[in-house]
Amino acid sequence: MTTITTTSAAEDHGSPGTPGGDEPSAGGGLRGRLRSGFGLMGPRHGRHALSVEQLDSLTLPIGDDGVVIGVDGEGEPAVLGLNRPTPYDAVLIGGLWTAQVLALRAAATGARVAVETGRPQHWMQMVHAMGGGQNGLSVYEVGRVPPQGASAGQPVLVVRDCGMRPPRGRVVSGPWQAVLTLLPYLSPVAPRLMRQARLVGVQRVSPDEAAEIGRTLALPRSEVEALPTLHDGVTLWCGDRDRQYVVTQPTDAETGLLGMPRRMD
Length: 265
What we know:
single chain; 2 domains; 8-stranded mixed beta sheet
């Protein structure tokens, strides 16, 4: 780092209006400094600057913001970036509990959450806990989700809890609007949805389902064999280029509202 030390012009040449650099009076020196725009003189520390070559070392943490969905195998936070300027589709083959935790945490980041569901009674407790739909979470019947008007200032997460064979939704992913489709089990439409999704989460499934998921996602044999043994709250998230096991640990407030992690509803 290059250190640049500067000296006040008043110290070298005297205050404005003081001939020959003679020592000014206390009142005159202060008035001169104020007139010259410096204000009150602070501590005499050297100033610091970066050379042009060093500017590239200044970076901001871009890409690590989003919803904390749990911890990875090393105990580090696993963050899912749902709020994006491009369409983003995710599929979760798993339990309602995990989808509800994701919805709660997305709303906590400032996103509006629209839930399309055929079992609204399972979501109403969350709606009431969050202020009756006025604080970021709304529930709609299947096929009745209105346009959400997503924007960079108000991103949207649409959660589709529409059973084994979700119909094509009226509201699809778009800029600043992500769609999470929840499938309780593998269904005939699941392979298509998984291939179209940018992210797929898989919780405990049967060996036959694991084999089908492994073929669709090109999983190694070790992970196919592990899927039927996953504990409650554990999800294998598969993205474009990587895979990661994540354990979703509820907060006290989430436990009080939703109970402990569970695969079955």
